[in-house]
Amino acid sequence: MTRKPFPSAPSPPREGSGFLKIMTAPQAGGIRPIHEFGPVDGRRRKGGRMNKEMIRKRRGNEGGFTLLELMIATVILAIGLLGVAGMQIVAINGNYFGKELTIANTLIAREIEGMKGISLDKVISKTEYITFSGKDAVYSGMEPSSGFYYTMVTTKGKGPDDLANTASLEVKVSWLDANGKKRIHKSSTVLFNNDTGGEGG
């Protein structure tokens, strides 16, 4: 039986050839040792170090947000939303107070106009309660517990320069707003008797 000759020894890597894997001829026991040659400068690769560095550099170039950046953005957004909510509450309370003030002005105008149409002898001071749906106003001296509370005070002979046949009239309306704060709105006028029927003009 003719024995096959062993292959010649591997030649060293040439410049620019990169990495080479050279396998020797079969040895005893059928083991084929593998020899790895590094770059042409003779350095050997250790544990895939170069591959890990390449992966790390590649990941470093990827865009995205860090956890800290996301947390900062969330805090800024929360502060902005709280500010908007506060402005909405102020606007709602302002609209509600405007509605209440309109009702108070209407009550005052109604009572003043009503007193102008009667004789000064019949003008009296009085106190009344006006119910207003949706209110829950409770404070000292107010009955019933829900509504507007208004007083009308007349003083005869206390018109301009304390002239006779005149009277001063003051109407005051009080109520509790949405925050439970007592509000007061008032207006005053002067009543005169006419020459013919003794009626207020």
Describe the 3D structure.
31% of the residues lie in helices and 22% in strands. It is of the alpha+beta class and 201 residues long. The protein has a domain at 72-192. The longest helix is centred in the middle third of the chain and has 50 residues, at 67-116. The N and C termini lie far apart (148 Å). Mean pLDDT is 65; it is low at 35-42, 130-146 and 195-201.
Question: What topology emerges from the helices and strands here?
Answer:
Layout: E1 20-23, E2 34-37, H1 49-60, H2 67-116, E3 126-130, E4 148-156, E5 166-176, E6 182-192
Antiparallel strand pairs: 1-2, 3-4, 4-5, 5-6
Q: What is the CA-CA span between the terminal residues?
A: 148 Å
Roughly how much helix do the residues carry, as a percent range?
25-40%
Shape call? rod-shaped
Largest sheet composition: 4 strands, antiparallel
For the biggest β-sheet, the strand order reads 3-4-5-6
Question: What's the helix count?
Answer: 2
Q: Mean pLDDT, rounded to whole units?
A: 65
Strand count: 6
Structural class: alpha+beta
Order of helical and strand elements: EEHHEEEE
| Low-confidence parts | 35-42, 130-146, 195-201
Strand content: 15-25%
Rounded to the nearest angstrom, the radius of gyration is: 50 Å
Summarize the structure.
31% of the residues lie in helices and 22% in strands. With 201 residues, it is α+β, with helices and mostly antiparallel strands. It has a domain at 72-192.
